[in-house]
Structure of ATP-binding cassette domain-containing protein:
Amino acid sequence: MIEIQHLSKRYGPKLAVDDVTFTVRPGIVTGFLGPNGAGKSTTMRMIMGLDRPTSGTVTINGAPYTSLHDPLRQVGALLEAKAVHTGRSAFNHLLALSATHGIPKSRVDEVIHMTGLESVAKRRVGGFSLGMGQRLGIAVALLGDPQTLILDEPVNGLDPEGVLWVRQLTRYLASQGRTVFLSSHLMSEMAQTADHVVVLGRGKVLADAPITDILSGASGQRVTVRTPTPDLLIGAIASPDVNVQQSPDGSLSVNGIAAQQIGEAAARAGVVLHELTPVTASLEQAYLELTQDEVEYHSEVAQ
Ligand SMILES: Nc1ncnc2c1ncn2[C@@H]1O[C@H](COP(=O)(O)OP(=O)(O)OP(=O)(O)O)[C@@H](O)[C@H]1O
């Protein structure tokens, strides 16, 4: 369990993390989402005791990282791709880490196997691709068989097979009751991985909810309706809370009333319906709605 309370971090005039409070629970995958510059990495570095908070507290299983006994066995983290830039082989890098932390050599073989690095384990880490570097970073995070995993943009640089592998691995680790916290700036990546998401924008928590709640909260309630007599239907459902827009293809997009009530109103008015579909926002859309005012750098849109 990671508990973050009123956490802030200021870099000169820049408030990178602004009074952030949330809890990362065990047994589920928690996604940490936000546009570039939102403050995700800064928050993760503070969790790992690598940056000192300006104010607030962070604990892992009840204690700050720096006072954890045997931290590698309690928390595994991947914080920066290719942080390891060495002439050592992946195997020797893992072996050196295990030796200094009292971890048996057999665990090195295990994590090499888990991360699919067998064929390159004897190669110099300095020559690794971004994807191989990510796999090695994840191998390091897993080395101590930790209860808590913190992965900053773990699928960065991975091919589709690698992305799927991270998804399966993180879900498996969570199913074992571990605390799994991973960041991304892409909602689509989280859609099939995370159970719960914390969304950050300009250092502030914009949402902290199960992924299904984020979806249903987006765009209000919208229903697509097709009928040969749109005017009759609009009359039947008219109310100050209901907004209806007609698309060029003739379908109606209705906000502010549930599909069931539309169907009932149509039946009462004798209106024939050809389609009645509640529209769920895509995760990407939900995420954009949440963060649209909070991105640090907007792209220029060509007119
Ligand atoms: N060491 C630092 N000194 C000054 N400003 C910093 C420092 N580290 C981060 N920042 C600033 O703090 C803000 C948050 O950065 P952070 O890297 O935590 O965001 P992020 O959500 O991880 O984004 P990204 O996905 O781009 O890494 C940014 O505006 C960044 O420029």
About this structure: Confidence is low (pLDDT under 50) at residues 299-303. Residues 221-280 form a domain with the Alpha-Beta Plaits fold (CATH 3.30.70).
